[in-house]
C-alpha cells in the first residue's frame, strides 16, 4: 500500500518535472498517468497493491472536485456582465460536444463484442 | 464551559473543521442522490458544493479559510489523475481496437467544444476576453488556464467556466446520451471525458471501468488537442 502510493506520487512528480522542463501543453498529473501506464505496459500486469490504491482513489474521484467547485461559487462575480452569453454558451456547447463525440464514436466504433455487465445508470 | 465564540475561533483556524465539512457534505450529497433513485440533478458534487457555499456564507467564512482545510482533498486530484492509468491499462485492448474511431470522435468533439462555445458567446455579444476564456472550457483546469493566459483571456474566469462545464456535463450528459440512444459505454465515456474533463470522468467511472477508461483517456487527449488547435484556430478567425 505504501509502495503503491509512493509509485503513484513519484509518477506525478516525474510528470510535473517533464512537463515543466519540456514546456509540454499537458498538466503534470496527465503526464504522470502516461508514465505509469508505460511502466505497467513494461511490467505486463497491474501489481495488486497498485490496483487497490488506484481503485480506492478513483472510487471517490467526484469528492475531490468539491473544493474547486466551492471556489467557483466564491468567484461567480467574475461572470459579470457577460453572464447571459456565458450561460448559453456553456450549456449549449457542453450538450453539443457530448452529442457529437458520442454519435461519431457510436457510428465509427465496431460494436463491442462482449456484453460486459455495467450498471444501467451511466 | 468554554465560550462558543472561542471554540469557533479555535476550530475555524484548524484544517480539521473544513476538511470534515467537505467530506460530510459529499456523504450527505451521495446519500440524497442514492435515496432519490440517482436523479441526475441531485449530482453529489453539485449538492455538496451548494451546501458548503451556503454554510460558508452563513458563517461569514472566506474561501481561503475554507481551502486551508479542503486543500487535503483537493491535493488528491493529482494522484487520482495518475491512477487513471490503471483502468486505462486494464481496458487497453478495447481502446486499441477502436483507436481510429476514438481519435476521430475526439477531434470532432474537441472542435465542437471550441466552435460552439465561441460561436454562441459571439452571437450573444460576449466580449473578446470572455470568448477567449470560454474557448478552452472543456479542458482540465490547469491546461485551460494556461491556454487562456497565452491568448490574452482571463485565467481566473476560465477556472470558473471549466468547473461549471464539468458539473453541467456530469449532470446533463447521461440523460442526453440516453435520449439520443447512445448505449455503447465506450462512446458514453469518451463523450463525457471530452466535454467535461475530470468531473465527467468521475461520472463515467461510476458507470463502470470501461466508460471510465475511455473518459480518462479522452480528458488527457482533449487537453493536448485543444492546447494545439485553439491557438491556431483563434489566429485564423480573429
- Beta percentage of chain A is under 5%
Largest pleated sheet of chain A: none
Whole-number total of structural domains of chain B: 2
Low-confidence stretches of chain A: 115-120
Encode the helix/strand succession of chain B as letters.
HHHHHHHHHHHHH
Which strand-content bin applies to the residues of chain B?
under 5%
Mean pLDDT of chain B: 93
Low-confidence stretches of chain B: none
**What is the rounded distance between the termini of chain A?**
30 Å
SSE layout:
The complex is a heterodimer of chains A (122) and B (238).
Chain A: H1 2-22, H2 28-43, H3 48-59, H4 66-74, H5 83-108
Helix pairs in contact in A: 1-2, 1-3
Chain B: H1 4-12, H2 15-35, H3 44-59, H4 63-75, H5 77-83, H6 85-90, H7 92-97, H8 99-123, H9 128-134, H10 141-151, H11 155-179, H12 185-207, H13 209-237
Helix pairs in contact in B: 2-3, 2-4, 8-9, 8-12, 8-13, 10-11, 10-13, 11-12, 12-13
Task: Characterize the structure shown.
Chain A is mainly α. Chain A has 2 domains: 1-61; 82-110. In chain A, 69% of the residues lie in helices and 0% in strands. Chain A is built from 5 helices and no strands. Chain A has helices at 2-22, 28-43, 48-59, 66-74, 83-108. In chain A, helix 1 (2-22) crosses helix 2 and helix 1 (2-22) crosses helix 3. Chain B is mainly α. In chain B, 83% of the residues lie in helices and 0% in strands. Chain B has 13 helices and no strands. Chain B has helices spanning 4-12, 15-35, 44-59, 63-75, 77-83, 85-90, 92-97, 99-123, 128-134, 141-151, 155-179, 185-207, 209-237. The relative contact order of chain B is 0.11. Chains A and B meet through helix 1, helix 2, helix 3, helix 4 and helix 5 of A and helix 2, helix 3, helix 4, helix 5 and helix 6 of B.
Amino acid at each position: 500500500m505504501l509502495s503503491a502510493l509512493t509509485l503513484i506520487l513519484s509518477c506525478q512528480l516525474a510528470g510535473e518535472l517533464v512537463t515543466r522542463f519540456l514546456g509540454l501543453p499537458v498538466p503534470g498529473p496527465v503526464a504522470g498517468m502516461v508514465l505509469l501506464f508505460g511502466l505497467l505496459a513494461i511490467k505486463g500486469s497491474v501489481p495488486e497493491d497498485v490496483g487497490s490504491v488506484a481503485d480506492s482513489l478513483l472510487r471517490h474521484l467526484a469528492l475531490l472536485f468539491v473544493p474547486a467547485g466551492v471556489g467557483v461559487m466564491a468567484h461567480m462575480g467574475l461572470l459579470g456582465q457577460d453572464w447571459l452569453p456565458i450561460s448559453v454558451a456553456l450549456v449549449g456547447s457542453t450538450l453539443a460536444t457530448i452529442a457529437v463525440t458520442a454519435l461519431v464514436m457510436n457510428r465509427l466504433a465496431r460494436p463491442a463484442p462482449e456484453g460486459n455487465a455495467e450498471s444501467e445508470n451511466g | 464551559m468554554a465560550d462558543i465564540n472561542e471554540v469557533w475561533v479555535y476550530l475555524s483556524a484548524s484544517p480539521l473543521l473544513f476538511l470534515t465539512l467537505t467530506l460530510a457534505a459529499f456523504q450527505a450529497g451521495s446519500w440524497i442522490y442514492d435515496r432519490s433513485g440517482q436523479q441526475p440533478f441531485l449530482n453529489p458534487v453539485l449538492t455538496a458544493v451548494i451546501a458548503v457555499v451556503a454554510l460558508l456564507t452563513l458563517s461569514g467564512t472566506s474561501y481561503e479559510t475554507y481551502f486551508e482545510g479542503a486543500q487535503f482533498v483537493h491535493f488528491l486530484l493529482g494522484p487520482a489523475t495518475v491512477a487513471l492509468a490503471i483502468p486505462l491499462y486494464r481496458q487497453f485492448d478495447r481502446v486499441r481496437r477502436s483507436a481510429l474511431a476514438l481519435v476521430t470522435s475526439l477531434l470532432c468533439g474537441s472542435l465542437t467544444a471550441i466552435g460552439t462555445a465561441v460561436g454562441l458567446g459571439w452571437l450573444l455579444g460576449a466580449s473578446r476576453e470572455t470568448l477567449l476564456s470560454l474557448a478552452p472550457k472543456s479542458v482540465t483546469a490547469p491546461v485551460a488556464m494556461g491556454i487562456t493566459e497565452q491568448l490574452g483571456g482571463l485565467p481566473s474566469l476560465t477556472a470558473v467556466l471549466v468547473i461549471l462545464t464539468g458539473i453541467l456535463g456530469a449532470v446533463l450528459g447521461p440523460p442526453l446520451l440516453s435520449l439520443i440512444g447512445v448505449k455503447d459505454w465506450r462512446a458514453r465515456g469518451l463523450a463525457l471525458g471530452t466535454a467535461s474533463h475530470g468531473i465527467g470522468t468521475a461520472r463515467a467511472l461510476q458507470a463502470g471501468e470501461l466508460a471510465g477508461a475511455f473518459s480518462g483517456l479522452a480528458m488527457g487527449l482533449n487537453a493536448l488537442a485543444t492546447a494545439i488547435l485553439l491557438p491556431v484556430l483563434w489566429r485564423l478567425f480573429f
